[in-house]
Amino acid sequence: MPTTLPQYVATWLPEMIAAAGNTLRMAVFAFVFAICLGLVLALARLSGRRILAGAALTYVEVIRGAPALALLFLIYFGLPSLGIVLPAFLAAVIGLGMNGGAYVSEIYRAGISAVDRGQREAAQTIGMTSGQTMRYIILPQAARIVLPPIGNYAIGLLKDTSVASLIGASELTLRARDLSSEYFMPMQIYLLSGAIYFVMAAPLSAGVRYLERRLRRGR
Amino acid sequence: MQTTATAPLVQLTGVCKAFGPLRVLEDIDLDVARGEKVCLIGPSGSGKTTLLRCVNHLEQPTAGHVYVEGKLFGERQVNGRYLPLRDAELARMRSTIGMVFQTFNLFPHLTALQNVSIGPVKVLRQSRGEAEALGLELLAKVGLAEKRNVYPEQLSGGQRQRVAIARALAMRPRLMLFDEATSALDPELVGEVLNVMRQLAIEGMTMLIVTHEMGFAEEISDRVVFMDKGRIVEVNGPHELFRRPQHARTQSFLSAVLQKKPFQ
To answer: Rg for chain B (alpha carbons), in Å?
Structure first.
């Protein structure tokens, strides 16, 4: 049995680092899900087809109006009544990804709209179709505009994975909660988990700042 | 309409354009013959630019039609009704008309050479090697071969506009539209762009040019069109129009514009 704080930390840390690995994996999967879904939603909203645009807008408004936790509960506890039972990790990835997709689509939409109208016209006059214009001209420029806000979203997502602890997905916050009920040292344990989140987020923050500087210089 | 050897390259019939209640073009009829250079002049807001943008259907005319080589442009006729074209068909038609913008609109994420070759590669499905060879040839033609790997932001305004001209030429257009191609340039950079346009004119390109450079218009045009308030007021050969304008409105415009340039 450990007696000093460093000894406790040494006991907790391997378990918490393993759980942090799950947090990271969950964040990466949810992030990929969200940026793909977000692109589909943004293109639907800008497609000019009323039904597609309306469906995408409805999705975005409904998702943004509901807490992410409610979505996770719906997927994890609600879907089994329809015969769909998902493991907690997968339910968390889907829930966070669906939630993030709504936010990311708004970032994309703003980025695409920020590309100068003349770019679209120039592409049209050399005979590009709408699809080619979007793919070769608008999206590559929009990507530069949206990179910093997408990075900020990724940082937020990394920490938002903690809500997955409430459906019992194995990740850092759940591990910390389990440890603190085992050792009755919540202050030390939650501080440690906070530090681990910080260590994971700090390189992302630095990356976003680097991108912002580089893109500003590129203008 | 049948394609015939004598048909004008471009024909506008009864073209009108309104943006909501604002009527920008009123019943425009205009023919441009193959190889002809026509300059559109007139005060700001007279509809010159909108007219140019109606030719390649960047703006869809509210009424009237555009014919290129005798064929209906940007629309199709079904049982006497005019319907919009599908995206891909409109794109293919547009690819045959080059356009140069006041604000250049180069693609900032592509190098000069990529700007010129992306159309042939993506639209005409040429191989990259073929398109780059053509692109280099065209960059050389506008005097910018050594800037092939440079991004637009590192180019001067005049250089950007010359790359934009090369980009349009890479599609082997039948017609070139110039929308105030020199209006956004520093005065000392205007000449290099006009020189490229002059060269194109000598080579026989059909050109429809919106410009405020009256000297250039007089020098290069076969005909000059004076527009005011969305209508064509007067069309004539350049010397006649500039020296002996018939309409009072043309006279007052020219005297106001040319007064500022005592050396003309």
So the answer is: 19
